[in-house]
Amino acid sequence: MGEGAPPVLTGRDIAVSFAGKTILDVPALAVQPGDLVALTGPSGSGKTTLLHVLAGILRPDRGSVVWGETDIARLRQSASDDWRYRNVGLVFQEFHLIDQLSPVHNVTLPATFAHFTVPPELHRRAQGLLDDFGVPADAHLTRTLSRGERQRTAIARALLLEPSILLADEPTASLDEDSARQVTDTLIASARGQTMVIVTHDPIVMERCRRIIRLEHGRIVSDDVREPAKPSVAEAAP
Ligand SMILES: Nc1ncnc2c1ncn2[C@@H]1O[C@H](COP(=O)(O)OP(=O)(O)OP(=O)(O)O)[C@@H](O)[C@H]1O
Ligand SMILES: [Mg+2]
């Protein structure tokens, strides 16, 4: 994982509908390796749906999502889970943390799919990421964390295995401006050639992205490439 340049992520003719209503209609989308893409647009415009299609969580009614040799949209469930485990870090809009576990155990959770016990180096990396994000690593059950701390725990978990693709759904939505800036800087500093697609309304995140794609009513209405802003503070390498 994390070795060499990842391939282009290419979506073609993607359509998703629920109850006969089309909520996503994307004829073509190519995300270049290592690119930093913000996906924005009004509530209900299909951002989460598109992110889940790119992650292989949601199979579109039509179309393909190709990553290297793999059409993610056509994988069986177990192959899709395996592909995701090996290649994708995901930050869900609702975090999907387990409240009864400590933050560090939530962060090491992905490692338990491949290892009977979590290797010590991954445990240390999890603790390091939580330190970088200012989350108390062992002291509390995740249930006791603030919403912002939960969000940062979810981001740390997505970064644990140094995925080739990071897909994040509103990763700064619960954070104040300083925390949003710090999390964005750490997230982007951790990229190291990874492809990132971040659903966001946050100008702090958007100004750091190279490409801004805007969805409305399930369609791409603008797609702009620009020079991203530099980090405002020294970047902490996780
Ligand atoms: N499982 C589902 N069943 C029916 N409708 C759905 C389902 N999932 C999403 N939708 C609908 O599809 C549309 C797009 O939803 P989506 O969650 O992708 O929007 P979004 O842009 O992420 O919005 P937000 O900014 O509020 O998170 C919405 O109208 C939503 O109600
Ligand atoms: Mg959403």
Number of strands: 10
Q: CATH homologous superfamily name of the domain at 33-49 and 86-225?
A: P-loop containing nucleotide triphosphate hydrolases
| Count of DSSP H/I helices | 7
Low-confidence stretches: 234-238
| End-to-end separation | 17 Å
User: What average pLDDT do the residues reach?
Assistant: 90
**Proportion of residues in extended strands:** 25-35%
CATH class of the domain at 33-49 and 86-225: Alpha Beta
Q: Which sequence of SSEs, written as H and E, runs from N to C?
A: EEEHEEHEHHHEHEHEE
- The appropriate CATH architecture of the domain at 33-49 and 86-225 is 3-Layer(aba) Sandwich
Using the coordinates shown, work out and report the CATH topology of the domain at 33-49 and 86-225.
Rossmann fold
Question: Which structural class do the helices and strands define?
Answer: alpha/beta
Largest sheet: 6 strands, mixed
The bound ligands are: adenosine-5'-triphosphate, magnesium ion
In the sheet with the most strands, the strands line up as 6-7-8-3-9-10
Approximate helicity band: 25-40%
Radius of gyration: 17 Å
Shape: globular
InterPro entries: AAA+_ATPase, ABC_transporter-like_ATP-bd, ABC_transpr_LolD-like, P-loop_NTPase
GO molecular function, one term: ATP binding
Organism: Paradevosia shaoguanensis
Pfam family, one: ABC_tran
